Amino acid sequence: KVVVVGSANMDLVGLAPTLPRPGETVLGDDFVMAPGGKGSNQAIAAARAGGETTFLGAIGSDAFGVTLGARLAATGVNTTWVRTSYGTSGVAVIMVDHAGENSILVSPGANRTFTGLTADEQAVIGEADVLLCQQEIPMETVHAALRAGRAGGTRTILNAAPARDLPPGLLDEVDLLLVNEIEARAVAGTGEPDMGALLALVPRVVLTLSGSGARYADRDGQDVHIPAFPVEVADTTAAGDAFTGALAVAWGEGRDLLDAVRWANAAGAACVQRVGASGALPERAEIEALYNS
Ligand code: ADP
């Protein structure tokens, strides 16, 4: 069982020949609306990877909230504990030009109201095998969720994305820190991603390396590079979310972490072969096919 505590956004993506400058109006071409937000994406990734997945988050009382909740439920995510707060849902306004350059405005909306975990919510977290958190909701809520996980004997994973300042003591509740190279520098406060510095803070670290795969290190002295699966890349959007959701599922199934990271590499590689964000997150069968290839 995997519990994801995090954000849900509606992504509004407009394509245009050039990005508008301040004061400018540009006539664009295609427009796509799709559920997003790291929390929701990783919950969908975990459910598609075959995990029994519960999402705890806040959506708005607007039409986007209805769509976001329905999309999670349709993927098989348990949405019993999703809060609906009066007002707008989280929205990401994304503009992409023909060169692939983008500008993004995130309006957190309901995600900002996700505070004060109830005793029932804490119990749901404590009953899971794995808790997965990111950093797109108030950090006090992330901290409280990690504490509830620890108290219940749930394995806690922090995907420290997007990089931001951490409240003191938060990393003490983390069993596994999952970061890319930028986030690794932010957490360690070093110029280069330094595993030693990270292991001083948390017992296990997974560092994703895009097309090179990932690196796993722990306090037992393991430090292993696990290579990526060679695939044709169509779009790397959501690869990190696919990897993260799959890693949580595999660890929750009791697989050892080197194997879980290899399986997560297969999920990330399956994701980059398709264009799209949450729509490109792979099903378990696709992950298995690459993993066994
Ligand atoms: P993020 O988008 O969070 O920075 P990464 O770019 O490191 O994450 O990608 C996450 C994972 O997705 C990688 O660890 C790898 O397993 C997989 N992945 C990403 N890019 C590729 C690629 N070009 N080929 C194969 N796998 C990839």
TrEMBL record:
Keyword Cytoplasm: yes
Associated pathway: Carbohydrate metabolism; D-ribose degradation; D-ribose 5-phosphate from beta-D-ribopyranose: step 2/2
Entry cofactors: Mg(2+)
Activity modulation notes: Activated by a monovalent cation that binds near, but not in, the active site. The most likely occupant of the site in vivo is potassium. Ion binding induces a conformational change that may alter substrate affinity.
GO cellular component labels: cytosol
Carbohydrate kinase PfkB domain residues: 1-283
SUPFAM superfamilies, alphabetized: Ribokinase-like (SSF53613)
Cofactor note: Requires a divalent cation, most likely magnesium in vivo, as an electrophilic catalyst to aid phosphoryl group transfer. It is the chelate of the metal and the nucleotide that is the actual substrate.
HAMAP family hit by this protein: Ribokinase (MF_01987)
Job description of the protein: Catalyzes the phosphorylation of ribose at O-5 in a reaction requiring ATP and magnesium. The resulting D-ribose-5-phosphate can then be used either for sythesis of nucleotides, histidine, and tryptophan, or as a component of the pentose phosphate pathway.
Protein name: Ribokinase
